[in-house]
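Lab meeting prep.
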Amino acid sequence: MLGHCVLSGLAHLSGNSATVAFQLLTIVWMEQPPLIIDIRDILRATTIDQMRDVYIVQCLMETDLYKLLKTQRLSNDHICYFLYQILRGLKYIHSANVLHRDLKPSNLLLNTTCDLKACVASTEPKGPMPLSPIRATGLRCCLMTICDFGLARVADPDHDHTGFLTEYVATRWYRAPEIMLNSKGYTKSIDIWSVGCILAEMLSNRPIFPGKHYLDQLNHILGVLGSPTQEDLECIINEKARSYLQSLPFKPKVPWTKLFPNADPKALDLLDKMLTFNPHNRIGVEDALAHPYLEQYYDPADEPVSEEPFRFIMELDDLPKETLKKYIFEETVLFKEKYLEQPRM
């Protein structure tokens, strides 16, 4: 730990770690908008031949949402504010044509002034923290950022990325049903599903779909949402998966008010729009931000978007390790040139 910063290992540059490191640098860190964890430095050897590992220096955050939900209940004000910050960050990520693919409470870091940041779990935040009242902390001084892009992929409409889109995405409990049923060709709506699961967890302090394995996860989802409609089934391109769902006995939808009897009705309305089985009917991030539940915080002028969407012209998974290493070294050089010369607050 360095003052108010923390040192984290990004990757040992071998195997899949090199691919992950390059994704992180190109998708997120090179732009450094306010919504991304504040990277203070990137440490590596001075020459490419000597470079074996890459480390980052980033701002310290004391705990995370997962640990917070283990120790205390959130007020509706906190739930509303945290949800807005998550969606505000996701709006930037999606505007850059990026799928995060691993949003979950343990990747959302909190500091003692009630800031919320989504970040790399390797920072190992320490223990629970008391929540101060939202209105007393000053909302606009609370910054939310998103990181941990090890599973992120660019959703470039001009390029076929189906080789990247596998079912091995996201922690199971926050995984959208289409990932398990189709595995390829999914969209930004998978991140909205994850945010919906996080919202449900903030409302109850427990995961809404705690499946033990693939089929159990689907059963948990159907046990709440009910059996998929014919329209829902038509969006499933995997014939075996569609046949399996059709073979299951009918299940009615459980009212959200039964699961969360004390929740704000507006929160439940937004939850219903996020946790929609059919991804084509799932609410988008901009519409979610504009939902009445978030009205007190909604400010499109204060919701940054990417100036230029990311596009990959290569299949990273197929690149030789030495080529990836070269790209990583070049990205770290650009980072130092672009950011370390700028004055820091």
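Slide two material, second protein:
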Amino acid sequence: MTEIFYSLGWVNRIITGTISRMLAVPIFYHLFWRHPFPSKKPKVNTGKMKKLHQKMELTQKKIEEIEPLIKKNKDYIDYLKFSAQIAKFYANKNLYSVKISKLLEETPIPAKNKKEAISLISELREDFKNIKEIYSDLWLRCAKPDSLKRLLPYYDWLDYLYKKKLEEIENNISWTNPFLESEWIGYPEKKLHQDYRYFRKTFAISNQKIKKAFLQGISNHYMKVSINGSELGEVFSRFTLAVRPIDERVKVFDITEHLKKENVITVEAANFVDDINSINIYAEIYFENGEKQIIKSDGSWKTYKREIPSWKEIGFDDSLWEQIKSYGVPPEFNGEITRPYFLDNWPSRTTYMFGTRGYFKNFIPQVLLPLLGKYLKSIGA
């Protein structure tokens, strides 16, 4: 199954061959769960994907041939079958994304193109539903159900994205940007540090009756979010391969009961290691009349490097505070982050590669190199 994990591109071959094979699986997960339509014209190495598809079909045939001959550990065959099946789906996912995008290029979308695109997506969804069922069965043969409950939403999420694509096609929409539109913002400075920085954003809402309102927070490392002086909670976001931090790096808060006519969002943020101090905030307010208001981190936010009394109050004078520095919208900083669908209970999704740039730029020089230096000194090098 090396073809699945270790032949995804020359960059990945370098990584898996010379840096760490432990990164090969996260890279594959990143690509496998990636949004199927990240751009209007997805960049896919179709030749490589066709080759992978052919190899996996051949692998499936070989497995069928040898299966009757196996006398021991026959259960292992099912896992090999599944590995080939997900690799084949991965190839189709990429190839179909290109094909579907081409079908939707014309405006308005021709009826025959719509029909074919819908058929391709339906085929993928059916195949993926089958993969999810097999995965669940294989998991429960050798592991506890608790962890499975955490993993199955990944399948539901990808299926949800295909469902949203079908809705777009029905509404004659060829493509919408799937990524978060709020900017990564920070204090305007060059120095990397672990100190706190403080952020404010004031906004007003109409007199319309509010149906529901949500605020989502993602930090480069750590932040505490408040609205109108009431603390919403903390957000811990960083590069990690550990399960729990990955699950909790995006936090969504229900702010319906916190809103007034005049409002202020305040954030205090810090880093665990010397790094860029940055945050990402995205909020949606839904009104009973069907209108929606979006509040997001952008150039209108204010920032300061010290905590000042009453800074969380709406009436605080922040005229002496500085304009934020923008690091751009995803994927410019911390990789691809999908937009949230709050009303369907889907927050934004980050990738397994979230925060890798900061990790390799800062953690390795600060932690690993000093340890290497001590080791070399201990052996007299």
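Talking points for slide two:
The longest helix spans residues 111-142.
The chain has two domains: 34-170, 185-363.
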